[in-house]
Amino acid sequence: RREKALAAGSGKGMTKDGHPVQLLANIGTAADARKAAAQDVEGVGLFRSEFLFLDRDTAPTVDEQTATYTEVLKAFGDRKVVVRTLDAGADKPLAFADLGHEENPALGRRGIRLGAVRTDLLDDQLQALANAYQATNANLWVMAPMIATRQEAAWFAELVRAKGLPKVGVMIEVPAAALRSFDVLSEVDFASLGTNDLGQYTMAADRMQGELSELLNPWQPALLDIIAYACDGGAKTGHPVGVCGEAGGDPVLALVLAGLGVNSLSMAPSKVRAVRTALALHDYAQCQQMAAAARASVGPKEAREVVLSMADPVLADL
Ligand code: PEP
Ligand code: MG
């Protein structure tokens, strides 16, 4: 039954009754892009651009970046490609952008906070993205990591729009941005939930600490509550909200995320088939009931169990 269910699905992600949930790929290099483009995915939901910047003594030039972005965009034709601007700092330090020692790097000048200090780096990256967009006329969406406030979202949106780029968004991975998602989403076209960091900051648990895996479990009801808040801002503004953290690649959790109102799920391309299958086996109303049941649970284990008990039995094997 498992093989049959998996074999049945192809094409766009949707529930049994046709509610769309875009299925997108997470990529980190141009080689990843070529591989992912050959798969049955609707585009890229997260292009982590860090590989261009890490392990080198000087920043990549605008021309160098333009060439890579153009290659990635060309690989996907008119499919959507969401590029995240540089997310360095904390666990990903840059030799050429050292802001000095920080006691708590995960709470320090990482992500867009580094971009706000090193505006030259951000400006070069946006210029390269604008060049690649002009060369390809691709379906390019650009977003910033670690946005916390409406003011940061407005500032970033202005920079991106000034370059003539068509779509600007933010990652929601700081609880403050999720709680005020209506404000943040009022400034931009879309948001993508980084559930890895959102889990870390919601639970005050270092994502690199294996011993804290129970707190970091993406089924934590508190994380589901905060995702629901973020989706509420999306619904009220009419702007799409996706998930690009690891949570999106779990076929059972994908049902809950869809039920919470998430419009797209981005994951390792190898996981897309199972998630597509899970969605196709359930109606949207069932996903909403699963989301409510998961949020009403006392803990992550119970949340997963109750959702599995409501789902098609084949889900246990996907
Ligand atoms: C996340 O935080 O969930 C995310 C997608 O970004 P990264 O894992 O690159 O921090
Ligand atoms: Mg993150």
From TrEMBL:
First and last residue shown, out of the full length, are: 230 to 547 of 548
Principal cellular location given in the protein's record: cytoplasm
Q: Which residues bind Mg(2+)?
A: E173, D197
> What does this chain do?
General (non sugar-specific) component of the phosphoenolpyruvate-dependent sugar phosphotransferase system (sugar PTS). This major carbohydrate active-transport system catalyzes the phosphorylation of incoming sugar substrates concomitantly with their translocation across the cell membrane. Enzyme I transfers the phosphoryl group from phosphoenolpyruvate (PEP) to the phosphoryl carrier protein (HPr).
PEP-utilising enzyme C-terminal domain boundaries: 13-280
Q: Which reaction does it catalyse?
A: L-histidyl-[protein] + phosphoenolpyruvate = N(pros)-phospho-L-histidyl-[protein] + pyruvate
Extract one GO molecular function annotation from the record: metal ion binding
Q: Which top EC class applies here?
A: transferase
> Under which EC number(s) is this enzyme classified?
2.7.3.9
Q: Which GO terms describe its biological process?
A: phosphoenolpyruvate-dependent sugar phosphotransferase system
Enumerate the cofactors the protein uses.
Mg(2+)
Q: Which organism is it from?
A: Micropruina glycogenica
User: Its GO CC terms?
Assistant: cytoplasm
Recorded superkingdom: Bacteria
Ordered alphabetically, the record's keywords are:
Cytoplasm, Kinase, Magnesium, Metal-binding, Phosphotransferase system, Pyruvate, Sugar transport, Transferase, Transport
Localization (cell): Cytoplasm
The family classification in the record reads: Belongs to the PEP-utilizing enzyme family.
Catalytic residues at C244 (proton donor)
Indicate what this protein is called per its UniProt record.
Answer: Phosphoenolpyruvate-protein phosphotransferase
Residues engaged in binding phosphoenolpyruvate: R48, R84, N196, D197, R207
